[in-house]
Every structure is written in C-alpha cells, then in structure tokens.
Amino acid sequence: MPLNDDTTHADQRALLVVDLQPDFMPGGPLACERGDEIVDAIGALINDSRFGRVVASQDWHPPGHISFAGSHAERAPFDTLELYGEPHTLWPDHCVRGTPGAALDPRVDWSRADLILRKGSDPRIDSYSVFRDNLGPDGQRPATGLAGWLRERGVREVYLCGLAREVCVLWSAEDAAAAGFDTFFLWPLTRPVTSASDVATRQRLGERGIHIVDAPDMAVLQDRQDSHKE
C-alpha cells in the first residue's frame, strides 16, 4: 500500500538509517542476512517528506580496532571476550575507515541526509549505538552528541532502520528510548546477522517500550498524526 501523506508534524520526526554499508551486505565480511533487500526501500524512505530530519550512521573503524577478532591472538570471529568488565563479541574486520566497505551504500542517494554520524573511531572502544559508544576503560559510555542535536531541532520521535537488527539498530533504539524520544523500530527495514536472534530482539524492544512497526507501508505514521490532533 502507498505511504500516507502526513507531513503535518514532520519537523518532530527523524529517520535514523543505521550502518547501511557494503561490509554488512551479503558477500561482505560481516554480512547480514539478506541485507541487500532493504536498500531500495530505505532509499525511498529517506526522501519521504514526513521526516523532517534524516541521519545516517557509518561504522568507521581504524585498522586493528579492539572489536576485531584479528586484533586478539588465538581468537576467532564471533568469539566472546571480556572487555572492561563486560562480555564483548569479536567481529571479523569490517568497515575500516577509508575502505570501499566502509562507505555508505552507493545505491542510495544520501544528499537529503542532514547528518552523517561516524562511530567506532576510537581504537579502544566499540560503538554499536548512534547515541552512545560501548562501555569504555573508564566504565562510561560516552555520548555521541546525537541526542542533543535532535533535541535542538525539535525532534520528538525517531524511526530506526538499517543494519544490523540485533546489534547496532537495537542498541540505537534502546538508547533513543532512554534519552526520552518516542522510538519506532522499522522491523521490515532491518536485517540481522542471524535471524536466530529475532525473538530476543523483539523481547528487548518490548521491555523498553519501543514501538515495533511491522507494516511495510508505515501506516503507523498516520496514527501518530491523529494522536497529535487529540
């Protein structure tokens, strides 16, 4: 079904496109299941006038990043390592800054993006969420500044899509909700590293009061417009 023409409250809405990058696509070193299937739909949504702001994030790691399995002797991708007091998954080397795999997907016109947020640049700290880095050596999760940037522009609602569903999109949604934004997880426009994680992902979203949008036509936006009028 076509998208509803609801631009009344566009200035209060932001679309967050998380890590739509070649290294997360099929054939990449950290491929998400059928990640290529969501590219065209996200490209169209970026140009949807119901969103007053569009933010795209970009994993942007230095070589030898601490999250890479190759940075740890006798470790393999997807092994778990305790890091700063918490378990941490070790990933295949991916999205190394300046490489083609770290670029934003070239099939999408990114000219409407108001902000390109690069994350994971500190060699000592991973960064799943677009709002906060992972736990660092000081026991803190440093903020990226995105929450303040959105608030300054009057954004109240954030809608998330991209890769990977159970990692960066999930953590971003959780931090958005914790920061006080009305948060919507666009399930059909995300893909996981492994679909075995889907049940746990939906449970975590529900526990944090995050709206899971299953309808591909995004009709929920019309419902939001109606609630503003009440």
Automatic annotation (TrEMBL):
Gene3D superfamilies: Isochorismatase-like. Residues 14-184 form the Isochorismatase-like domain. Pfam families: Isochorismatase. It is an enzyme of class 3 (hydrolase). Its EC number is 3.5.1.19. Pathway: Cofactor biosynthesis; nicotinate biosynthesis; nicotinate from nicotinamide: step 1/1. Keywords: Hydrolase, Metal-binding, Pyridine nucleotide biosynthesis. The keyword Metal-binding applies. PANTHER family: LD05707P, PYRAZINAMIDASE/NICOTINAMIDASE. Belongs to the isochorismatase family. This is nicotinamidase.
